[in-house]
Amino acid sequence: MDSLLKTLEEPPRQVVLILTCTDVGRLPLTIVSRCQVVKLGAVPTAEISAALAGRFPGVPAERADLLAHLAVGRPGRALALAADADSLASRSTLLSETRALSALARADRLKEAERQAKDHAIHPEETARRLEALAGWWRDVLLVKAGCEDLVVNRDQLDDLRARAATTSLADIHAALRAVEVTELFLHENVQPRLALESLALALPG
C-alpha cells in the first residue's frame, strides 16, 4: 500500500496512472485523496447512433438505432455489434429461446436446462450471453408494463414485449428478473450448473 501511495503522489513524469472502480466509496480515502475523480456515465443513445452512422455509412438508420439501444450506453459495445455481421442473428436466436422457454411444460423446461448445462461445460460464455439476453428481455417487459417503451432496448421486439407485458403480473416479472440475477450469482460462485439452470427454468413465469 505504501508503495502505491508513493507512486500516486510522485508518478514518473512520462506516466499517467488511471485507476478504475465501480464504487469509489469502497476505496481507502488515502487513495481517493491522491486522485482526480472522473465519473464516467453511459453515453446517450442518440450520440451512439450518430457515431455508428459516421463510422459505418452503409448502416441503415433503423439498424444503427437498434444497435445503439442494445449497447446500453457503451459505444465500444455498439461498434463491436456493428462490425459483427452475425451479432443480430445470434441475438434473435437467443431471444427466441428465451420466449420459447416460458411456454414449455415443466418436464420440457428441465430437459432444456439439462441441455444448457451440457453446453455450459463447453462454452460458459454462451451461458453468460443467454442470461444477459434473458435479463434484457424481462427488463424490457417490465418497462413496457410500466409505460416506458421509450427505454426499451430490444426495440425490434416491441409487439412480443407488449403481448408478454399484457399477460404477466408485475410480481411475476420481478420474480423472473430476480431468478436470472440469482442464477448468475450461483454460476459465479460455482454452484452445480445443472441445478442452477433447472432452478431458473422452473422459476420463469409460464
Structure description:
The protein is mostly helical and 206 residues long. It has three domains: 2-32, no CATH class; 45-84; 88-203. It contains eleven helices and no strands. Helix 3 packs parallel to helix 5 (75-83), helix 7 runs antiparallel to helix 11 (193-203) and helix 10 runs antiparallel to helix 11. The longest helix has 22 residues, at 124-145. The radius of gyration is 21 Å and the shape is globular. The N and C termini lie far apart (53 Å). The model has no long low-confidence stretch (mean pLDDT 88).
Kindly provide the radius of gyration, computed on alpha-carbon positions and rounded to a whole number of angstroms: 21 Å
Uncertain spans, ≥5 residues at pLDDT below 50?
none
Shape: globular
Give me the strand/helix succession: HHHHHHHHHHH
Helical coverage, percent range: 55-70%
Secondary structure class reads: mainly alpha
Number of domains: 3
Count of beta strands: 0
Mean pLDDT: 88
Task: Give a short summary of the structure.
The mean pLDDT is 88.
Please describe the topology of this protein.
Layout: H1 2-9, H2 29-32, H3 45-55, H4 61-71, H5 75-83, H6 87-103, H7 106-122, H8 124-145, H9 158-166, H10 170-188, H11 193-203
Helix pairs in contact: 3-4, 3-5, 4-5, 6-8, 7-8, 7-11, 8-9, 8-10, 10-11
